[in-house]
Amino acid sequence: MLIDTHCHLAAGDFAADRAAVAAAARAAGVRAIVVPAVDLASLAAVSECCASIPGCAAAYGIHPLYVPQEAEGDLRPLREWLEQTASAPRAVVALGEIGLDFHVAGADVERQERFFVEQLRMARDFGLPVLLHVRRAVDRVLKYLRRVPVAGGIAHAFNGSRQQADEFIALGFRLGFGGTLSCDRARRIRHLAATLPLSSIVLETDAPDMPPAWLAGGRNTPGELPRIAALLAELRGIDVDELARVTSGNARAVLPRLLSDD
Asked: Does the model's pTM come out above 0.90?
């Protein structure tokens, strides 16, 4: 059994064949898919996706790259949405995708930070783990996690140093690895994935984004997770079944609302 801890299955890229994509992934051994929202407009789409497709679990939040399009007051509707869903044990498994992204030129860092901190406070208030976006902002994200402690979570698409990885682990986080492992130039990421404690690693696809090298830029899907798992098992020199068992256990441990029979 495999768990895709980060897949944008509710995105428009899958509008024409969403159910078929999910069914193909399930047939390949992917038993659960965590589907994060990126803005207020996507909350309902994520909810509908997870209600209609077996094995899907919702996360709700505002992605840092979508912060510019949201009004400051739009954080209140997110809190109200969480108030409606967080009381149902399986309606939401995490708050996300949230975080910071300093990769894009001209990013409004102060505004991103305001949204991030407020969403961390929501996660704390509702007792939810978080799905973190940390592109070129790892140290700043860690700073705010120390200021606003939450119930752990996942550092999605981790691309930091070993020291930064250890800091996340100490704060109760797991680190997400996916299709980037297939890129020959991603030597540091491959080394981290091969040498970090296996107990700290979860698998993800970030579909439809971050396609593995073997797709040659084509659309990524959660059905690619078994091949990603096989690659990571090869890097670590272990059996792929063991890797699947441990990483799925890691995902359930850090996302306790994600039940094994999803």
From this structure: yes
